[in-house]
Specification:
By secondary structure, the protein is of the alpha+beta class. It has 5 helices and 5 strands, in the order E-E-H-E-E-E-H-H-H-H. Helix 2 packs across helix 5. The N and C termini lie far apart (about 50 Å). It comes from Roseinatronobacter ekhonensis.
Length: about 160
């Protein structure tokens, strides 16, 4: 066991973790932040994406003990201070960028990382960036629309699928 201290969604957290504890498990079981989903345990689906020091990370591939001092943001941390949906979350709701919702937390977090790096991505850039996130329900068009809307761009001109 080792002690790890990190800031999660703006709050400093300290806990004892086993060396093999994945960040996804630490968040879900240790901190009860269950918005981070684990879909595959093989880093293929992207449902577990969180931001670590501002970068999109598949939390099923990172050991919690290795993140001493890190700044971690989960989908719960994307809400506004008053608890209402943040800009990206609201865009996903407004543009129906979800169906079953299982992939949504990872999509939202990947979108946050994309927009931090590229505030006005093209449709092609959005599709390329989200290649590491699998959705088995939506066909992606509405997810792309949601990302474009969250970036403040016109979604009416997007190609229909």
């Amino acid at each position: 066991m080792s002690k790890v201290t990190m800031t999660v969604n703006g709050r400093k957290m300290a806990a004892e973790v086993e060396g093999r504890t994945l960040l996804s498990g630490f968040l879900r079981e240790g901190l009860e932040l269950t918005g981070t989903h684990v879909g595959c345990d093989t880093s293929q689906c992207g449902a577990c994406v969180v931001l670590v020091n501002g970068q999109a990370v598949k939390s099923c591939t990172a050991f919690a003990a290795d993140l001493e001092g890190a700044e971690v943001t989960t989908v719960e941390g994307m809400a506004n201070p008053d608890g209402s949906l943040g800009n990206i979350q609201q865009a996903f709701q407004d543009y129906h960028g979800l169906q079953c919702g299982y992939c949504t937390p990872g999509m939202v977090m990947s979108t946050a990382a994309l927009l931090a790096d590229n505030p006005k991505p093209t449709e092609e850039e959005v599709r390329h960036y989200l290649e590491g996130n699998i959705c088995r329900c939506t066909g992606y068009q509405n997810i792309v629309r949601a990302v474009m809307a969250a970036s403040g761009q016109d979604v009416g001109a997007l190609a229909a699928e």
